Amino acid sequence: MARCSPPLLRRLFCCAAKSASATAAAGTKKKNIVFLGSPQVAASVLDTLLAASSSADSAFQVAAVVTQPPAAKNRGRKLLPSAVAQLALDRGFPSDLIFTPERAGEETFLSDLKEVRPELCITAAYGNILPQRFLDIPPCGTVNIHPSLLPLYRGAAPVQRALQDGVEETGVSLAYTVRALDAGPVIACERFSVDDCIKAPELLAILFNIGSKLLLDELPSILDGSAKQKAKPQDDSKVTLAPKMNSDESWLAFNEEARLLHNKVRAFSGWPGTRAKLQLMNQNGEPDVLDIKVISTKVSTSCEKPGDENEILFSGNSLLIPCNGSTWLEVLELQLPGKKVTTARDFWNGLRGRKLLKSL
Known about the structure:
By secondary structure, the chain is α+β, with helices and mostly antiparallel strands. Helices cover 31% and strands 26% of the residues. It contains ten helices and 16 strands. The chain has a seven-stranded mixed β-sheet, with helices on both faces. Helix 2 packs parallel to helix 7.
């Protein structure tokens, strides 16, 4: 991603300053904010900010965008920009003002950021640690949209870990960024009820959408400094952590209760997903190991069909897998290696009567 050299930036912002001086006379000078984010949920926040800043009576303008460097994606391993960078480019944002440092503490990047003269920095799923030298630059501070009710679920995977725990309520917090992880004073938060079907990608999108609206509501107080007086310190005695997802965690173990497995499927949806090993009896009566990806599930506490304790049954539109505590995990959708996602019914029909067992 192209990036301005400091001299060019100075020329750009010299021109911007002249324009700002002209509008200042009319009392409409806009304050510079810098947005930091990377994935699609962050791109939706940037889109909201860009739309709001284009209004004639807006008090701010997006002066620069900071995101993760281009990464190799898809089968061709072609370097592609982050979702945030792509959104910015699609909206006509100057490519020279899209910064992609490997680390937010790089001297060149910090120098470029100072040239922008941001009043405020806003982060949403940026994915990079911000050093104190960064935090010292914007006079109004750095504010983060965090998809949990802080101090609950501080860390990299708040939505996923909340779903894994089976919470019935979560939310989004707007908090100042400090050096300690997600530990800054909370400006505002909004609660959201969680049903037992919603998956992580959907909940992430909902919470960041709520967070972007919350941010717009609070921006006037953040920019005039009054938000710092009303922001509430977090209660460290109530902290819970949400560590990064690990692909090694993706396996389902049917010696657990079905509710725990169902919550894990919801939490791990998108990445890394959930996998299970099953045994498919071949024509010789011997088991072949079947590695499946579990896509959608429900929970059942009873099964009227007879079967041994390891046999997987089919009823309605679900595979019925016996789990601990006399519970049953209903698998509605699954995926075989190298194949597309299929319904449990189509998968069952493809077995042609062969017996299916849990892997021991």
